[in-house]
Amino acid sequence: MTLPGSTPVRTPGVLPVRSRVASALRRGLWWGVLSLTGGVERRGRLPRGGCVVVANHSSHADTAALLAALDARHAPAIGAAADYWFASPWRRRICRRLAAGFPVRRAGGGMADLLTMTGELREGRAVVLFPEGTRAEDGTLGSFHKGALVLAEKAGVPVVPAGIAGTDRLLPKHGRLRSSLVRVAIGAPLPAGVSPAAARDAVRELHDRTAAEPLRDSAVRRRVASVVTSRVGPPLAFCWAFAEALSWPLMPELLLGVVCVAVPRAALRMSLGALAGSLAGGLLALHLAAAGVQPPAPLTTDRMRAEVRAELAVEGARAVRHQPWNGIPFKVYGAEAGRASVPAGDWVAASAAARGGRTLTVGLAFGAFGLLLRRHRRLYGRYLALLGGGFAVGLGLIVRGWG
Fold this sequence. Notes:
This protein is α/β, with parallel strands linked by helices. The chain is built from 18 helices and 7 strands. Strands 1-7-6-2-5-3-4 form a 7-stranded mixed sheet, with helices on both faces. The N and C termini lie far apart (68 Å).
């Protein structure tokens, strides 16, 4: 029991609950961020108790990768260059709060900075250091400084090598952020008294093996991706949506669910192609209906048409704003708008707002989902089966509800 005003007693070998909770929150944050930018994988685990983790360093994203991959129970703290991350108040706050960073001077005094962490290492914390001292630009490892090894020896904890792959593509030095899968491989603890060169070799072996490991993929996804990334991709989305606005019973969002998960970077252009096709097809449906021509409309019902006629009578072209939510196909709205003599300009403007919001939102959401599933691409075939089954059930329920 702690008396008011007294200093809490810290149990030797046990990290405070506050540190572990903060570490869990940081891990969740960076896991979420990296999941959106291509995913993060981990191989291996840290040993029980405190340890000094040494890793290669080629990107600012290395810190995020390690915070996302290492166990929260170790409450990892990251050694950060004092002359960069602690040179201004806002950088210092970001480093401390989002990365549990502590300053390490690179121009004298760095060893003393490291030794301030011996107590926390003995409590079970993992101290993460980049012994190269700076980021490499060409993918090679520089020489390792001995500070991490001295710290581990003074604290009586093991040195654990870690290889990070993918961050140099995710956020290159002096480059811009782009999508990439990040992998972290954690090796076995190194023997006591290991040299800096031996530690470097262990990290390099982990990095090279991890970087060379191919990402398991689905043959179906690769075939879909080859179509989507070719010149056929956007025209396919246009034609599908155009046909659906006239007669085709399968909405373009089904196609977006297939292609945007397969190739997330194509989500925007495929969604725009589908939107353009919907607007063109809807405009043609309006003109055909005004001329008395009615293309086949499978999976539509008289009750759907009656509901749309009632909405158009009250709201005119703005009635199409209900379409993204009520389950009535877009082609029903286009045909009934033609019979109601809705002006074509008003129809296109209202349709662009209604269909644009839905199509772009759905396409980009599927793209984000595809990024989250990047490391599970081998399961793409199963995803398609679930998507098709779910769509069939949903379509059946909608038609039955409007029957």
